[in-house]
Amino acid sequence: MAASVPVEKTIYLGAFAHCVALAELEIVEKGAIGVDEHGVIGFIEKEVDVEDVRKRHEGWNDAKVVSVKDGFFFPGFIDTHTHAPQHPNTGLFGKTTLLDWLDKYTFPMESSFSSLDKASRIYTNFVSRTLSHGTTTCAYYATRHVEATNLLADICLARGQRALVGRVCMDTLSPEYYRDESVESAVRDSKACIDYVRSIDAEGSIVRPIITPRFAPSCTAPCLAGLGKLAHEADAFVQTHVSENTSEIALVEELFPDSKSYTHVYDEASLLTPKTILAHAIHLSTEERKLVKERGSKISHCPASNTALTSGCCPVRELLDEGITIGLGTDVSGGFSPSILEEARHAIWTSRFVAMGTPAAAASSLNNAAKLSTAEALYLATRGGAAVVGLEDKVGGFEVGKEFDAQMIRLGSVPEEGDKEGVFGEDGAGGPVDLFGFESAEEKLEKWMYSGDDRNCVAVWVRGRLVHKTTRYTA
Amino acid sequence: MAASVPVEKTIYLGAFAHCVALAELEIVEKGAIGVDEHGVIGFIEKEVDVEDVRKRHEGWNDAKVVSVKDGFFFPGFIDTHTHAPQHPNTGLFGKTTLLDWLDKYTFPMESSFSSLDKASRIYTNFVSRTLSHGTTTCAYYATRHVEATNLLADICLARGQRALVGRVCMDTLSPEYYRDESVESAVRDSKACIDYVRSIDAEGSIVRPIITPRFAPSCTAPCLAGLGKLAHEADAFVQTHVSENTSEIALVEELFPDSKSYTHVYDEASLLTPKTILAHAIHLSTEERKLVKERGSKISHCPASNTALTSGCCPVRELLDEGITIGLGTDVSGGFSPSILEEARHAIWTSRFVAMGTPAAAASSLNNAAKLSTAEALYLATRGGAAVVGLEDKVGGFEVGKEFDAQMIRLGSVPEEGDKEGVFGEDGAGGPVDLFGFESAEEKLEKWMYSGDDRNCVAVWVRGRLVHKTTRYTA
């Protein structure tokens, strides 16, 4: 299985949109993006003459053309935090909060991944699901099983989805039936997964390993230290959870009485590096935020999960203002959707609750500065996420020299007489967004942002390779 | 066009679920619901022998059988507050709050409904959309145009969707280009719509009129009083907005300095009756809540809209505990989805923000009593809504003597090898819910609740009449 699949030289023609800066969305209505046989963007035009575009670029005369109708190209989404084995638990959380949720739903499901058949079925399905939502890069937590974790990497590589794949480490405070036996085995098994992932994709162009201590409460200090050492030796990415829930924070204080804070626990184990992704980070103190910033570690914001488990509202705008790098994470199955578009909406909602301050507050006392804009939420979903997973030079936006990770978005056109049968384009495949023809380009994008779903994502490319399509995709 | 369409005597076979009390969801795995030629439920069985069911009920020998696979029957949803003409603005709100949102998006769109062609296209499409999401009853705001409002009633009747259809009254503080000319014309035009709707459905079995002052700021006191008088003379339902946004509340105080509160403004105009639906009711004082309760008026909770426009979080659990009758409203296009299932999720999220109290609070200080459960949110979406629109004796649950307003829910089964192509049942038509086969009946329902969408709603009935279906419906 080759990490680098050759692709046909292609010009992507029609509207495209992407984030050029945190608060700035560029929408180009007559665009052309030329993508070479390595999947790299060779040229971009913004006022294109369709007839002329092939001729004007030397060497592109015979290029294939893929046109988008009733929609636009958008950069692939980047999911900076999700748990692939928890996919079957999506939507199951009831009124639990983090710690009882782990015991009730998560540990029993994850422990069953000792069965490779089960792992294969669930991972195959989950990678299909995330791709169908336009997720071109995903930072996955697997389970503590080496073989099943390696299988997830195989599946991502075969399907062509960029992934960070991590074996979960947990040597304490986890159930007897589901924990690493010792510090040594935890580190050894983690190393085995790193070696395997690097053996199937030496350059890490599609799949890369990531060291994954579940979170401080389920790792002893020696285990964390061993993983920190491994991270430096292997120059590997690290992902874990921090400051998600106040009971969890209290537990960490109790378990690590000599550490200044939850974040310091990781720092003391040399686990805070520029290649570290910290999920949640809701309740960080000023000092902890400073430490994260100093170490250059990144944050994965998971608002849907944080609301579902009533963990709290991460004050994302403050963290952004402090210069911390942030992306979005679906955090399945604390989160209830594998869609980063849905997550971007929840980033908006959570920022609005932060703006309101208390449930009863409203317009007159709004802290408008806390509200994320549509552009900002989409930035977190693409460029922000790219920077979190160390791919800011390769993906996240459309620029010459970047690789073409993209989704084709199509929206539904309402017939002049209205949709009398309620079929919305062959059995609902047209998706939930209705265009009446009088919308501006900005309004089309807003409609997609606030009511679009996977039906609007009709094709997905990674490095120029078509990795997902529906029948509404016509090349 | 007949309001009463004869239907074939039918037995609905298989699992069904419904709310039997506020916090109690009943799930029957081997059910049978017999529906007669008037659309009325004649019998219900809960441990059915498939072969036997027709024989055991006299007169049902020749009944048609409709079976549900991979899913269940659920009562039709009731949307107690939405604005049909704002459908094309769905998803457009940016960072506006109520009063600037009205000026920027709402009034320009609504005023264009002087064109019946435009009204026909948009209303046809919106009724199709709401039906496709399983909404069997809808309380619609139209515009101030008599003809377009009557057209909406015609469309609902033709499609068989139960509806309350209201011409919007507004004789002040609205733009010059979109307001009622006088108190007299406002009352006269409202009466014209009442008369029309009653002329096409004399018994009100499908469509009924509803008197609709937009909200206190856009109606003069004489206009409100005139509508209050009309409501009593015509024995009609009333719908309006109350206490949505703190700036709006301040404006009402300024406009009605002699009234004790926003709610009292309506009471003084005799507009608070047991047939009155008040949307939002976020910031009501204790005294206002008492008044609502005393008058027997109902509340439509619209959490998606309230979050989108940062209006605030309605403390629904407190209102329920006080004995107020509450349903859910999508409030398109303040709300960004025509789906009551999505609205039920937002009722859950909003209740969680109320539970957290402030964005930074969390598990340790949670006010768990404020959290709505899945059962409670679904109750509001069905039985609660039925009581809000005065149909509690007819719909909202499955009981002998009630009319059969229902949706067939189908969920997706994951193949043993996982869905390798990511097509999820012919181009995504299988919908977003993945069943692996090990879920309990309760878990299936939770999965639908937290990640289902219109694709899972494969058929919809009102009074036993099939009013929407997709190709995944097989009778």
UniProtKB/TrEMBL annotation, chains A, B:
Any one Gene Ontology cellular component term annotated for this protein: cytosol
Pathway participation: Purine metabolism; guanine degradation; xanthine from guanine: step 1/1
Sequence ranges assigned to domain Amidohydrolase-related in this UniProt record: 74-467
Catalytic activity: guanine + H2O + H(+) = xanthine + NH4(+)
Single GO term (MF): guanine deaminase activity
Enzyme Commission code: 3.5.4.3
Cofactor needs: Zn(2+)
The keyword Metal-binding belongs to this UniProt entry's keyword annotation: yes
Protein's name in the database: Guanine deaminase
